[in-house]
Every structure is written in C-alpha cells, then in structure tokens.
Write a structure and sequence with these properties.
- By secondary structure, this protein is mainly alpha-helical.
- The protein has one domain (12-156).
- It is 71% helix and 4% strand.
- It has six helices and two strands, in the order E-E-H-H-H-H-H-H.
- It has helices at 14-41, 49-54, 66-94, 99-118, 120-126, 131-157, and strands at residues 2-4, 10-12.
- It has a two-stranded antiparallel ribbon.
- Helix 4 packs antiparallel against helix 6 (131-157).
- The chain starts with a strand and ends in a 7-residue tail after the last helix.
- The mean pLDDT is 86.
C-alpha cells in the first residue's frame, strides 16, 4: 500500500510500520518484564506478569505450572507487539513532540484498561493480589512507557521520516 508521509511524499512503508511497531512494543515489553522480575525477586510480588496474563486462559490450579508461563508469554508478547504497532501509528499520526509524555500516558492507559477492567476479575479470583503486587504492575507499566519512548525515539532518530 502506498501512503503519504508528513511531507506529502508517497512511500511504500505499511509493512515497516507494522514490523517497526511490533519490535518497539516487544522491546518495551522486555523492559516491563525485567522490572517485574526484579520486583518478584525482591519479594514485592508472588507472581510474574505471564502468570497474571494466563489467568484469562487457565484454571487456578495450572497458574504455577510451566504451561502458565508459556500461555502467558504467548499472550503477552502478542498484545505488546500489537500495542507497539498502535503506539507507532499514533506517533506517526500525532507527531513526536513530547514523545516521552505520550509514551508514558499510553502505557498507563493500557495498565488501566488491561488490569482495571479486562484482567481484574480473572486475577482477583485466581491469584493472591496485595497492594504491593498491584504497585508492581503500575511501576512496570510506567517503565513500559519509558521503553516505548526510548525505542521509538531511537528508531525515529535513524529514519528519514519527518514527523511534526
């Protein structure tokens, strides 16, 4: 598909938007998972993100088995790649000015939607959640936003695409 960039120059880059956005989302997810795992090791939470995500798919008795990590990983990586694509499209449309604020705002919105609505009931019924465990998810998603900012900024620095 041929699309116009901000300068009115047409270029063939729809696949680049998808691939670039997915890579940005997955790299930011690595940051989020790293923060989550460090906080898990420090004892602030008793579960990792992949277990939280697996609550949508598996019964309670399977959430501490290797299957939960695999199912959660597939779902988490799929979602974060998709969110990376959405964020990259958003930045392509809205511009890169105040990129760090947009990235952190996007990540915190995702935290609110995913953990506040979609995962809330399945997590609450299946895994023990303490206040510190919830705070871990907030901090990790804030760091996901920083990851989105950093990796988007790094990519945009190296591309000829002129965004507002």
């Amino acid at each position: 598909m041929i699309i116009g960039n901000m300068n009115g120059v047409e270029e063939k880059n729809d696949q680049d938007i998808v691939i670039t956005g997915a890579i940005i989302g997955i790299l930011a997810d690595v940051v989020k998972l790293g923060v989550n795992y460090i906080m898990y090791l420090a004892g602030f939470t008793k579960v990792v993100f992949w277990q939280l995500v697996a609550t949508r798919f598996l019964a309670k008795q399977y959430l501490f088995n290797p299957a939960a990590y695999f199912v959660g990983a597939v779902a988490d990586i799929t979602i974060t790649a998709s969110l990376g694509i959405l964020f990259y499209i958003f930045i392509r449309l809205m511009g890169k000015r105040h990129l760090w604020i947009k990235a952190i705002g996007f990540a915190m919105f995702i935290w609110t939607v995913l953990f506040g609505t979609l995962l809330d009931q399945s997590i609450a019924e299946k895994l023990p959640q303490t206040a510190s465990a919830v705070i871990v998810t907030i901090v990790a998603h804030f760091c996901y936003g920083l990851g989105l900012w950093f990796f988007t900024w790094r990519f945009l620095r190296k591309t000829p695409v002129d965004l507002p």
